[in-house]
Amino acid sequence: MKGHTNGEKYSMSDGMNSFDTVIVGGSYAGLSCARSAAAHGLDTLVLERKKDLGEKIRTTGIFVGEAADVLDVPARLKRDIHGVRLYAPNLQSVDLESPGYRFQAINTPDLMRWMGQQAELNGAEVRTGENVAQLREIKDGVEFSKQNVRARFGVGADGARSNYGRLLGLPENKEFLVGAEVEMSGVRGVDQDRLHVFLDSEIAPGYIAWVVPGVGVTQIGLAVRKPHKPQLERFLEKLRKLFDFRDAKVVERRGGLIPCGGAKREWYTDRSILLGDAAGWVSPLTAGGIHPSLQVGKAAGVAIADFLDGRISHPAALLEWRRPEWRTKQMLRWGMDNIALPNSLLNLAIGNPLFAKLSQIIFFHHRGLKDPEAWKAIASSEQGESLPVDRQSLAEWFLSP
Ligand SMILES: Cc1cc2nc3c(=O)[nH]c(=O)nc-3n(C[C@H](O)[C@H](O)[C@H](O)COP(=O)(O)OP(=O)(O)OC[C@H]3O[C@@H](n4cnc5c(N)ncnc54)[C@H](O)[C@@H]3O)c2cc1C
Question: Which of 8, 78, 81, 318 gives the lowest tally of CB atoms within 10 Å of its CB?
Answer without folding.
Answer: 8
